[in-house]
Amino acid sequence: xxxxxxxxxxxxxxxxxxxxxxxxxxxxxxxxFVALVGPSGCGKSTLLRxxxxxEKVSGGAxxxxxxxMTGTPPRKxxxxxxxQSYALYPHKTVRQNLTYSLRLKGIPRAEADRKAEEVxxxxxxxxxxxxxxxxxxxxxxxxxAMGRAIVRNPKAFLFDEPLSNLDAALRVQMRAEVRxxxxxxxxxxxxxxxxxxxxxxxxxxxxxxRAGRIEQQGAPMxxxxxxxxxxxxxxxxxxxxxxxxxxxxxxxxxxHLDLPGAPCLAISGATPGRPVTAGLxxxxxxxxxxxxxxxxxxxxxxxxxxxxxxxLVTDTDPALTICLAGRSPVxxxxxxxxxxxPGQVMLFDADSGDxxxx
Amino acid sequence: MDRLKGNALMLAGILLAAxxxxxxxxxxxxxxxxxxxxMAYPPSFWPEDPTPIFGEVWTRLQMASYLKNxxxxxxxxxxxxxxxxxxxxxxxxRVKSVWIDVxxxxxxxxQVLPSSLMVTxxxxxxxxxxxxxxxxxxxxxxxxxxxxxxxxxxxxxxFLQVPAELEEAALVDGNSxxxxxxxxxxxxxxxxxxxxxxxxxxxxxxxxxxxxSMIGTRELQPATVGLQSFMGPNSSxxxxxxxxxxxxxxxxxxxxxxxxxxxxxxxxxxxxx
Lengths: 358, 273
Known about the structure:
The structure holds 2 protein chains of 2 kinds.
Chain A lengths: L3 E12 L2 E12 L3 E5 L6 H9 L6 E6 L2 E2 L10 E4 L11 H11 L4 H15 L14 H13 L5 E5 L7 H18 L3 E5 L2 H7 L2 E6 L2 E6 L1 H6 L4 H6 L6 E7 L6 E3 L6 E2 L9 E6 L4 E3 L8 E10 L3 E6 L6 E5 L9 E6 L5 E4 L9
Chain B lengths: L1 H31 L2 H5 L14 H7 L2 H32 L3 H15 L2 H14 L6 H26 L3 H9 L4 H12 L1 H16 L3 H6 L8 H8 L7 H35 L1
């Protein structure tokens, strides 16, 4: 069994009457890249700050590399953090920013300088060592923030939405770069983001949070294929999953969707007669020729073409999004026939939202 | 039309500044006049025969001792205020609570009370605990108490501008709370601290009420009290008094002019951003 680098046991956090974290259990093995993802206000940043020691836990225990660190101040935890605003020290040069933590540890100036130069080479900052943060571009500042974390060789890296201030193209580039650095250093990383694409593409293990609770955690594709509830199904995947109300037939072997002209889907395993919510991913609705048995004819209201993909929004209640490769075969106002593979339909309890399929 | 309006406003500005600066001008001019010319009517606006007597006044009125005491009191007050006020201002900028607002209000209230009102209870209290044996120290303490509110309020604004994330980054980087305060927060609030410190120094340099009431010995009195002792109904040495005032005020003016850009930006930075 691999060594656990960060462990949280029933961590609670209260701000006065507000319950920000509710019994968080999380075990992060050494060398894993974990993403904490969720809508704003879900507690993901609070959780990260709790791990860093910037917030005191109200209950539960936190262990780092096996040692109990529940009440330890941040400076004794040996974790490095990359902030959303980068938090570079404005009155220090890049070199001084990189060596600040080393000098605090009592490492001699010459050795600290050597380490800073090595990290500058890895992150491509060699030419900028004597500059001040205000003289750098957004991407360069981001690299300094990364470098400042790397130079310490910490027990784990904590990232608080580090890419959200970059423009879209740079963000995609840095995404790959962060992951490459993680692999190269054999590091343990905890990465907070509100962008599920970032979480899915970068992480080994994704933790979905909502209102201070872990909704589900697991490998990215596990969350995509088998979401534990309707919230996770809606949050993971882009564009978002379509949810259609339906009802299990009396014999319990099929589900009838609440859409005009919708076929019965042969799905078993649910309680007969129960109201359910079906989750249909936009990319799982397959266009077909009109008249195909079991096809569903949908009036198309909007077509959004990106070139490689087209997103169609239907004029139904609820509106469905359909994701097609290439160009749309029908213009807005036309009718598109699609088939639904029952094996790809996700079923949720209409009341609790919990997943119904094994 | 707009240009005319601009010119008119400019003229009004110059006129107002002239009225405001007239006493300063009169001080310098009178210092250079002879005794009869000072009393002449109509008054002359420029001395006929400028005779600077600064050197003579410096020794005759024993200004070295007065100015030394002024610098000592102003310096001591500034050191005390910066030492105690900086930490307080930082704490009040970081803790968010109703009680901080209450404390700020109380601090500002103290600023409102005039020295002439406070001096009697302070005198009685200092006398009881034996502080009056060190009269200059007593003035420093009283003046520091008077200046602390202003310093705290203005420096707190400087600290509020430093993002909390920088301090958190320092904590995660392995620094203690005190270390982060000294190596990150104080250097970044440096401008505000400097400017407010200079203001405190200048204000204390001109302090009169406490020194007048608490310091009896001439050798320990600051320049403000000394100046007053040369003025009175029977005083005739107007050029001497004005030379004294000029010597006293010119360094203050010089500091202010040299630092005016920083002082103004330091005072408004909290409000504008």
